[in-house]
TrEMBL record:
<keyword id="KW-0378">Hydrolase</keyword>
<dbReference type="Pfam" id="PF00857">
    <property type="entry name" value="Isochorismatase"/>
</dbReference>
<protein>
    <submittedName>
        <fullName>Nicotinamidase-related amidase</fullName>
    </submittedName>
</protein>
<dbReference type="InterPro" id="IPR000868">
    <property type="entry name" value="Isochorismatase-like_dom"/>
</dbReference>
<dbReference type="GO" id="GO:0016787">
    <property type="term" value="F:hydrolase activity"/>
</dbReference>
<feature type="domain" description="Isochorismatase-like">
    <location>
        <begin position="19"/>
        <end position="207"/>
    </location>
</feature>
<dbReference type="InterPro" id="IPR050272">
    <property type="entry name" value="Isochorismatase-like_hydrls"/>
</dbReference>
<dbReference type="InterPro" id="IPR036380">
    <property type="entry name" value="Isochorismatase-like_sf"/>
</dbReference>
Length: 222
């Protein structure tokens, strides 16, 4: 079996069962004036990974492998937004409130959209998720099963929250998970470092981590 150079050891890739999942590369998290910036975060940390995420997406497209995009968002009537979630963060600007790019993290609003540089193309799966993990209250699991996917490469934001949460959900469901290190980011560098360490600790207890170039080389030569 072929392997991708990774930590803590080579990732035993099965190219015909592999998919890329790009987590929450949305305007509200990456652009000035969005929800992320309203919480006092430096959104330039997010935008700087865009070229590597784009390279990864294009590599998977070129190889004919599935690309899945997620967006954290809620119904306009907020029926899928627990009060405990809404009440956190910036007291003056909460999920569902009117922001500079429309209602914050509401399905269909401009700020909820994926960054134009990383926009899905026809045929790619888009998962709208109300939680941090992409399996909660979505059809992701059923879609992966239908496509025969057993391995997931992860990119997106933020490393320690939605990316790590989804990896842990996937790990518990039996998927083998690989995080693309340069294609994920946090507003806090120490949080990204800690998440990476936790993911690959104790013999890949949650998953593996690898460099984008090594992942692209493997799928290009499959």
């Amino acid at each position: 079996m072929a392997g991708i150079k990774a930590e803590p050891f080579a990732f035993p890739v099965k190219h015909d069962e592999l998919a890329l999942i790009v987590i929450d590369m949305q305007r509200d998290f990456a652009e000035p004036g969005g929800f992320g910036a309203s919480l006092g975060n430096d959104v330039s940390r997010i935008t700087r990974i865009v070229p590597d995420v784009k390279r990864l997406i294009q590599g998977f497209r070129n190889a004919g492998l599935p690309v899945i995009h997620t967006m954290e968002c809620h119904r306009p009537d907020l029926s899928d937004l627990p009060p405990a979630k809404r009440d956190r963060g910036n007291p003056s600007l909460r999920i569902g409130d009117e922001g500079p790019m429309g209602r914050i993290l509401i399905s269909g609003e401009p700020g909820t959209a994926i960054l134009p540089e990383l926009a899905p193309v026809k045929g790619e799966i888009i998962i709208e998720k109300p939680g941090k993990g992409a399996f909660y209250a979505t059809e992701l699991g059923a879609m992966l099963k239908q496509k025969g996917i057993s391995q997931l490469v992860f990119a997106g934001v933020t490393t320690e929250v939605c990316v790590q949460t989804t990896m842990r959900e996937a790990n518990d469901r039996g998927y083998e998970c690989l995080l693309a290190e340069e294609a994920t980011e946090s507003y806090f560098p120490e949080f990204k470092a800690a998440a990476i360490a936790m993911i690959r600790a104790q013999g890949a207890i949650v998953g593996w981590t690898a460099h984008v170039d090594d992942i692209l080389e493997s799928i290009a030569n499959a």
